[in-house]
Amino acid sequence: MRAIQLNRFGGPDVLDVVEMSKPLPQAGEVLIRVRAAGVNFFEVLMRGDRYAVTPDLPVILGVEAAGTVEALGQGVDTPLIGTRVAAPLFASKRPFGGYADNVTIDAKLAVPLPETLSFEDATALMVQGLTAFHLLRQSPPAGKSVLATAAAGGVGSLLVQLAKRQGASAVIAVAGSRPKLDLARSLGADAAVDYSTSDWPMRVREAAGGAGVDVIYDIVGGSMTAASLEALAPGGELVFAALGRYAIGASELEAMITRNQSLRGFALLPLLSADGLRASLSELFHLAAGGQLAVTQGGRYRLDQANEAHRSLEERRSTGKVVLIP
Ligand SMILES: NC(=O)c1ccc[n+]([C@@H]2O[C@H](COP(=O)([O-])OP(=O)(O)OC[C@H]3O[C@@H](n4cnc5c(N)ncnc54)[C@H](OP(=O)(O)O)[C@@H]3O)[C@@H](O)[C@H]2O)c1
Questions:
Q1: How far is CA 125 from CA 5, 99, 174, 252, in A?
Q2: Where along the chain do its domains lie?
Q3: Is the pTM of the predicted complex or chain greater than 0.85?
Q4: Which residues make Cβ contacts (< 8 Å) with residue 72, sequence separation at least 6?
Q5: According to the model, what pLDDT value does residue 77 have?
Q6: For FRET with 261, which of 18, 97, 109, 197 sits at 20 to 30 Å CA-CA?
Q7: What integer pLDDT is reported at residue 79 of this predicted model?
Q8: 5 C-alpha vs ligand 1 centroid, how far in Å?
């Protein structure tokens, strides 16, 4: 089978297409023929060794895939052959390997897809869907004004919709271009502000009625975090989810304390139990299959174009989900 291997850290062209033998499903596992492999922004950072976690090399990138079950390991007796499933590799004992023609995963983690949900849309609902879902579960938006950052991206485009659905009093989206702002509005954002302008925090505050927003879901980090605090209401909460890109210092924390604001961390993986994962994924799959949650597809690339897929994310050209089609 073909796979995309990272042999050294660097730019998009360090992603090599390699031939290797198809993995054998071990006891309790299934072998999946991948039909869509999800690409996530953190993998772009990881490829350049700019992420919070440095993987051992060589590694086949990719932590999520969707496809059909092709073979069963010993002890798997359910009639799974041919079933369309999601493979949330990130929750398994071998969390990488998704950019490939085949993957294996513990049969208990393979989640069946509703008939009307495409493989591509299923990949969007794994890391990105679960991140949006758990960000909102941990810091519920009901009755609050909230700020969604990178609002047209994979996580952001789902978070805007789910926050609205869960009763946020106002969802304010920030993103980096006009088409992205239009997309966020079309997904239900009450206001959308371009955060490439210097006065964007003031414009967010205005959109929230003057005092600022109650909750900021910060998935961008870096210098954006400190700027966003200008748009946070007294008593508000900053949820920080941009792992490895924490850039606020003592003066910002001091200012938060004097305004009775709180800072909350967010990391997806520790929140996932096997049962919880299946339940949350099934909920997201059924919302999308039933048309209550729109998945934005932001680029389909062949497996051997993984470098192009990474470029589109890195150069901020993508919206929604970027997928590889083996
Ligand atoms: N804490 C966790 O457990 C967890 C889990 C999953 C994802 N995340 C985080 O969630 C974020 C979104 O992930 P995603 O996969 O859905 O990506 P994405 O939002 O689809 O793509 C990344 C977006 O980030 C924005 N951006 C801001 N600064 C950028 C920069 N310097 N370079 C490139 N893009 C930049 C761009 O949108 P604009 O042009 O609109 O700024 C870009 O489109 C990532 O930061 C990821 O690390 C966290």
A1: 24, 17, 21, 34
A2: 2-127+273-325, 140-265
A3: yes
A4: 25, 30, 31, 80, 81, 107
A5: 77
A6: 197
A7: 72
A8: 22
Q: Probe ligand 1: pick from 197, 218, 316, 321, max atoms within 8 Å of CB?
A: 316
Task: Tell me how far apart the alpha carbons of residues 199 and 173 are, in angstroms, rounded to a whole number.
Answer: 15
Q: Looking at domain 140-265, which of 3.10.180.10, 3.40.50.2300, 3.40.47.10, 3.40.50.720 is its CATH number?
A: 3.40.50.720
154 Cα–ligand 1 center, Å? 8
Nearest residue by C-alpha to atom 31 in ligand 1: 314
What residue ranges line ligand 1, CB within 6 angstroms?
40-42, 127-128, 131, 150, 152-156, 175-176, 180, 219-220, 241-243, 266-268, 313-314, 316, 318
The span from the CA of 75 to the CA of 29, in Å, is 8
Closest CA to 79 of 100, 105, 34, 110: 110
CA-wise closest residue to 324 among 287, 294, 297, 296: 297
3-state secondary structure of 252: helix
What confidence tens digit (pLDDT) does each residue in 198-240 have?
A: 999 999 999 999 999 999 999 999 999 999 999 999 999 999 9
Half-sphere exposure of 182 (CA within 13 A, CB side): 3
Task: Report pLDDT for 284.
Answer: 98
Identify the architecture of domain 2-127+273-325 in CATH. Alpha-Beta Complex (3.90)
Rg (C-alpha) for the chain, rounded Å, is 20
Token digits for 318? 């993508």
What residue ranges of the chain have pLDDT lower than 50? none
Q: What is the pLDDT of residue 275?
A: 86
**Cα 219 to ligand 1 centre (Å):** 6
Q: What is the pLDDT of residue 283?
A: 97
